[in-house]
Amino acid sequence: MNKYLFSALISSLAITGSAFAADNEVIGVVNFASCITESKAGRQEEENLKAMRDQMSKMAENTEKELKELTAKLEDTEFVDSLSPKAEEEMRQRVQTLQDDLARYQSQFYQFLQHAQYQMYQKMSANIAKAAEKVAEEQGLAYIINKEACFFIRKDRDVTAYVIAQMDKDSESAPKAKELSEEDELDVNALDEKFLEKASG
Question: What CA–CA distance (Å, rounded) separates 33 from 31?
């Protein structure tokens, strides 16, 4: 009986020792979403993405507006009767072209925005990892993991504020990213080549 009790005691000590060792591993956690929404680099990336999205939406809206105007005219029998057969045919062809363009633009916009969001995620992941490594070295941490991977973490293990601060330092020393401006206005007619080439690259 004593033999079994002794074995159980040894096993218990081993488990406790392992848990103690794991607890003494200096681990930090970082909130990935906060690093994007609160850091200078993250906010800039979100602004650039919004500018892109707004410009794309405006282009699609202009096409849709012209399409609605032409469709309304073609539904006006009095107006159609005033047109020559050639003019009416040209207007109907224009409507078909606009319908095709609108469907194509919407599809390409969706693909391009998905790619832009993916690129943003990859870029911010690299920035966060770089900043987290510096914070880990400064604070003597063995690990810094994504907070989303934890069911529970002590507040004193959250190093998000330090990582964001380091990201801001890094962004100040890095070359300024090019912002989308009016000079960079997207060319609707070049969507197939420009956007898809960029999306595939």
Answer: 6
